[in-house]
Specification:
Elements: H1 4-16, H2 26-43, H3 49-82
Length: 83
């Protein structure tokens, strides 16, 4: 779900943009940046694209069933009020 390569690239970009006086800490900063990014991303309530599509399909089927049941209820109410 979370691409470690992208996190590494982002951490590298952050360390590359450090001011010249802090370049000696670039390696440590990059490593710490990766840890912070990974921890914060893991806190997010994310799902994979595949899981999202599965749930979207389930929701569509549920909605279709609900509409069919509502039509049945409407028809039964119509019959009862006609009697």
């Amino acid at each position: 779900m979370i691409n470690p390569k992208k996190i590494e690239e982002l951490a590298k970009q952050l360390s590359d943009n450090l001011p010249a006086g802090l370049k000696q800490f670039a390696g440590e900063f990059e490593e710490r940046s990766k840890q912070v990014l990974q921890n914060q991303l893991l806190k997010l309530d994310l799902v994979s694209r595949e899981e999202f599509e599965v749930q979207q399909h389930v929701l569509l089927r549920t909605r279709e069933k609900l509409e069919a049941l509502q039509a049945q209820v409407n028809e039964l109410e119509k019959r009862l009020s006609g009697e």
